[in-house]
């Protein structure tokens, strides 16, 4: 074996783990319907019974194509719709906004992922699949490649502090997190973590221009991508301190690059922000830093833990509270060694928790890199590694099963 190949053996290992994970997950989701059927509807939340009946998907044409159907549910319909027909797709469901106008629900979703799907659909169209099937395949491929990128980024983030086994374990823990199956569905999670974690790894490698470009793309993928200006700013401050000047061309250029995610977010805000805010408020009941509304929502969630709203709601919120608590602990535990990474994660959690709705947190925390770094540091102890792997995969199996049947997960 050549020295160059030996130096890249970790990459081969990561690719093999990623490939095996994808094959096993897809096989699992494909086999489930042949073995059991769930009792409907889902009572996890007060609105889920109306959305999880036997025929709840009948009015959602973008979720009915049999090709890779187990990889699409919930928000997938909007990404497929945008990729095929744009934001003003006449087939998209609409909502009456507070000013009395009607807007497609597509406007609640950021553009990069569905636009990337449209680009990838072009060569895939040669396969002769339906437009929905082609879009679905494109979305899955983008999610998978983004996830592989996130694994490589996590490896780079920790390789100076952990041995090769620990660095690979960090990337592996991303895949097996209870909601890690979202990284292989038609959802933005895979692409977003690839871009966001890639930005953080690029900063670690002092590649400022690459980090800024990835941050800008992340800001066009999900709203919390704009928060990457914090680690970019911290890296720039460190550079200023080390150089001892603010006037060199190099330092000035890097200072401007820290604004890349903010600039990207403002461009999106000018083009789509008004419609986004209207649909988010009118249909999804979300907003930025909705403190009072969020407190009320989380108080209701706490009551659910006490069994007042049924055992399904209690289990759902136990997972929500558990993942938020774990993410916060992980960020605080990694703050000293990875300040930019940890602060980004903390802000992601804060913005998510105060969005006005107490749900989907177990999916949102996938964007917190400190979570996998913290768990990997604990995983250097073999007993913890085996226990966490077992617990996490078992729970992911349950959640992936629910998603496969279009039941509510996050």
Could you explain the architecture of this structure?
By secondary structure, the protein is mainly α. It has one domain (3-404). The chain is built from 17 helices and two strands. The chain has a two-stranded antiparallel ribbon. It is globular, with a radius of gyration of 21 Å.
Task: Name some characteristics of this structure.
2 strands; about 400 residues; mainly alpha
Strand arrangement across the biggest beta sheet: 1-2
Number of helices: 17
Q: What class, by secondary structure content?
A: mainly alpha
Count of beta strands: 2
What number is the mean pLDDT? 95
Number of domains: 1
The residue ranges in which pLDDT falls below 50 over 5 or more consecutive positions are none
Give the strand content: under 5%
Largest sheet: 2 strands, antiparallel
Give the helices and strands as they follow along the chain. HHHEEHHHHHHHHHHHHHH
- CA-to-CA gap between the ends? 45 Å
Report Rg.
21 Å
Provide the helix percentage. 55-70%
Subunit arrangement of the protein = single chain
Name the shape in a single word: globular
Please write out the topology.
Blueprint: H1 3-7, H2 9-31, H3 76-85, E1 94-96, E2 102-104, H4 112-124, H5 131-158, H6 164-176, H7 189-204, H8 208-219, H9 229-243, H10 249-257, H11 260-284, H12 291-305, H13 311-334, H14 339-353, H15 361-364, H16 369-378, H17 382-404
Antiparallel strand pairs: 1-2
What is this structure, in a nutshell?
This protein is mostly helical. It has 17 helices and 2 strands. The protein has one domain.
């Amino acid at each position: 074996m050549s020295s160059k190949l030996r130096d890249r053996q970790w990459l081969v290992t990561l690719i093999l783990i990623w490939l095996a994970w994808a094959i096993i997950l897809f096989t699992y989701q494909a086999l489930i319907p042949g073995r059991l059927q769930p009792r409907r509807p889902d009572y996890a939340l007060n609105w889920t019974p109306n959305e999880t009946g036997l025929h709840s998907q009948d009015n959602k044409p973008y979720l009915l194509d049999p090709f890779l159907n187990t990889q699409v549910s919930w928000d997938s319909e909007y990404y497929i719709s945008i990729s095929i027909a744009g934001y003003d797709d006449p087939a998209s469901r609409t909502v009456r906004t507070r000013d009395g106008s009607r807007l497609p629900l597509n406007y609640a979703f950021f553009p990069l992922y569905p636009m990337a799907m449209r680009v990838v659909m072009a060569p895939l169209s040669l396969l002769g699949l339906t437009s929905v099937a082609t879009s679905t395949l494109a979305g899955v491929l983008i999610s998978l490649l983004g996830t592989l990128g996130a694994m490589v980024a996590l490896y780079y983030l920790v390789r100076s502090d952990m041995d090769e086994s620990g660095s690979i374990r960090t990337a592996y823990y991303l895949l097996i997190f209870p909601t890690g199956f979202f990284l292989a569905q038609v959802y933005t999670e895979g692409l977003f973590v690839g871009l966001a974690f890639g930005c953080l790894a690029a900063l670690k490698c002092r590649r400022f221009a690459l980090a800024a470009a990835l941050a800008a793309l992340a800001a066009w993928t999900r709203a919390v991508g704009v928060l990457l200006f914090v680690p970019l700013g911290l890296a720039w401050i460190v550079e200023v301190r080390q150089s001892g000047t603010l006037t060199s061309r190099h330092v000035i250029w890097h200072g401007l690059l820290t604004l890349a995610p903010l600039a990207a977010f403002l461009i999106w805000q000018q083009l789509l922000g008004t419609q986004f805010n209207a649909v988010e408020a009118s249909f999804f009941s979300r907003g930025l830093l909705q403190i009072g509304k969020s407190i009320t929502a989380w108080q209701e969630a706490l009551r659910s833990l006490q069994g007042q709203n049924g055992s399904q709601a209690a289990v759902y919120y136990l997972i929500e509270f558990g993942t938020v608590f774990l993410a916060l602990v992980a960020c605080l535990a990694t703050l000293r060694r990875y300040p930019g990474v940890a602060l980004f994660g903390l802000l992601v959690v804060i913005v998510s928790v105060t969005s006005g709705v107490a749900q989907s947190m177990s999916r949102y925390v996938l964007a917190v890199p400190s979570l996998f770094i913290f768990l990997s540091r604990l995983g250097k102890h073999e007993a913890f590694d085996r226990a966490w792997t077992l617990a996490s995969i078992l729970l992911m199996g349950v959640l992936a099963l629910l998603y496969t049947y279009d039941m509510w997960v996050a």
